[in-house]
Known about the structure:
Number of helices: 7
Number of strands: 7
Strand content: 5-15%
Structural class: alpha/beta
CATH class: Alpha Beta
Bound molecules: NADP nicotinamide-adenine-dinucleotide phosphate
Helix content: 40-55%
Oligomer: single chain
CATH superfamily: NAD(P)-binding Rossmann-like Domain
CATH architecture: 3-Layer(aba) Sandwich
Order of helices and strands: EHEHEHEHEHEHHE
Strand order of the largest sheet: 3-2-1-4-5-6-7
Largest sheet: 7 strands, parallel
Distance between the termini: 39 Å
Amino acid sequence: MAGATPAPAERAEGPRRCVVFGGSGTVGRALVAELARAGARVGFTYRQGREIAEDLLRAFPGTTALQVDLGDPRGAAEAADALARRLGGVDAFAHCAVRASSVEPPAFDAIEDVTFEGFADVFAVNVTSAFAAARGLLPHFDGGGNIVLFGSVDGIKPVPSPVPYAASKAALSGLTLSLAKSLGKRGIRVNLVAPGVLEAGASRMLPDDLRAEYLKHCGLRRLGKVEEVAALAAWLALENTYVTGQTVMVDGGL
Ligand SMILES: NC(=O)c1ccc[n+]([C@@H]2O[C@H](COP(=O)([O-])OP(=O)(O)OC[C@H]3O[C@@H](n4cnc5c(N)ncnc54)[C@H](OP(=O)(O)O)[C@@H]3O)[C@@H](O)[C@H]2O)c1
């Protein structure tokens, strides 16, 4: 169509350039691999997962990584900017970093154990760093592109989960909607992937009785595979041209 914003998939020259926050995480590392296998150049962050980061860098030459504490919004914005510069621009950003709880073990009902500082720390990693990165990346989205954020069933349906985590995941729904409206005119699409309980990763905090309860209500009667979520996120990052402001639940039919 004449005058339409070119989709990332239609970029005339060079591989697509993707920034992934939390590339050392369970979903993040599967997504980095999926994007790299699709021919994209990926720049990702890690914090404590140096070995995982090094494995990814070895497996996918051309990939680049940066260690950063995403609890600091300025650090998050600078990391996004630095990775985009290394890649020579950006076509997609995915935010997979998460702080699941402010206390150990995660407090599901003990609200009194959640400090204001802990609540703010969870929001800093889960929400503020996503906004900071999106803002920091704007000058680098030279041909439009895709932003993929990660919510959770916890932010959409009343399932037992730590309050700061659930509240942060609901905030990401709002961030997705408002960014999608604001950035549409720049040809940037923004969507939220909201997994149910997966076989690994952040769901490790879930007590066994709640996992069993989840399986009773899940239409497909099984936990989600990390690769199933990564494949959807990779499609939204690399192929999507007209879906924006949407939440895609990947929960097996809860
Ligand atoms: N797995 C599930 O069952 C599930 C269910 C629903 C929603 N989700 C959502 O899916 C997304 C990915 O989750 P996941 O399972 O992959 O989580 P995960 O395995 O726990 O990975 C968390 C990632 O966040 C990074 N991170 C945490 N705190 C950080 C900080 N202060 N600074 C920088 N990086 C930090 C970790 O880095 P390091 O390890 O390098 O420190 C790691 O890369 C999240 O948004 C999560 O809420 C997952």
